[in-house]
Amino acid sequence: MRAAAFFDGEGWREGVVALAGERMLLRGEPAASDLPRLDGVIVGGFTDHHVHLQLVEHERLAGSRLGRVVDLGANPGVVASYARAARVGPLRSRGDRDGDGPRSSSEERSDETERATRIEYAGAFLTPVGGYPSDRSWAPPGSFREIADAEQASAVVAEMADAGATRIKVASNSTAGPVFSDESFRTIVDAASARGLPVVAHAEGVGEAQRVARLGVDALAHAPFSERLTDDEIAEQAASVSWISTLAIHGDLRAIPVDNVRRFRAAGGTVLYGTDMGNGPTPVDVNALEVAALREAGIDGIPLLRALAPVDPRDPASVLLVLPHPDADPTLARPLTTADLEA
């Protein structure tokens, strides 16, 4: 048992980390004055708010420092199966390993808190007929839905919701084909709202980021990169939508999105860490290049941790990570081990 500082999503708090059977659990409570301290601080597994699990070796999530990922464009049936496997796969392996017959009710309850990366998803891209990414070779079958009218829009939103989607993804890429009219876009937003689902938009092309924000989206899947927004446009964005960063995918061409993010953050906007995992050779883990790009945009310390949105480490199902100290680079995080408690 060790006293330890931990990050609760907003700031640093004091708690106690201890072994409970084969597990390490964190309790958010004052530690006894004579309790030895952990050498380091605790965070939960980080969140990547923009991934494409069909384009990577998604099984590697199990050994990563990611506690949660949000898939923003996949065949809904396939990604739903990934999410189910992430919840139940480790539980089955434990029962099979023991080979000792049916488990007791207490064992069943314990297994419900087996640690695994949580997978949330939007399901398929919603796009107009011929719109992005319908012509892309990388888009797996079923990963997009071409929508021709309002009736079809409502039906597709219902399909995604019934498949377990926690948000709706809309493509609005004017550089790669047609985009929805304002009226059609609002129909999708209204249908999503009726199902209690936020809308995330891929906005690409001059003016598209401003247009989709005006039409009621909740988040942009990419920090705007087609143009340098004016300060007034930045202020409007900061008041209405959040941005998922995805800065590193632009490589040496990231100056515009980095500048936009720097001013958006200064205007009070919410920036969420996301990598567009699967867009090129991205790691199935925390992406050091994305973290460095966020720092380049002036996001560091507690704001950087908030962007990474670690799962609450007090949650028994949370991955537990240890950092050398509260101001450490998040890429230095590593899984907490029993050796840390025995040291």
Detail the topology: elements first, then pairings.
Elements: E1 2-7, E2 12-20, E3 23-27, E4 41-44, E5 46-51, E6 66-71, H1 76-98, H2 105-111, E7 118-121, E8 125-128, E9 144-147, H3 150-162, E10 168-173, H4 182-194, E11 199-204, H5 208-214, E12 219-220, H6 231-240, E13 242-244, H7 255-266, E14 271-272, H8 288-296, H9 301-308, E15 320-323, E16 334-335, H10 338-342
Parallel strand pairs: 5-6, 6-7, 8-9, 8-10, 10-11, 11-12, 12-13, 13-14
Antiparallel strand pairs: 1-2, 2-3, 4-15, 15-16
Helix pairs in contact: 3-4, 6-7
**Fraction of helical residues:** 25-40%
Overall form? globular
The averaged pLDDT comes out at 91
- The assigned structural class equals alpha/beta
| Uncertain residue segments | 89-113
Number of helices, counting only DSSP H or I runs of 4 residues or more? 10
> Total strand count, please?
16
Radius of gyration, Cα only, in angstroms? Answer: 21 Å
Succession of helices and strands: EEEEEEHHEEEHEHEHEHEHEHHEEH
Main-sheet strand order equals 9-8-10-11-12-13-14
Our estimate of the beta-strand percent is 15-25%
CA distance, first residue to last residue? 11 Å
Largest sheet: 7 strands, parallel
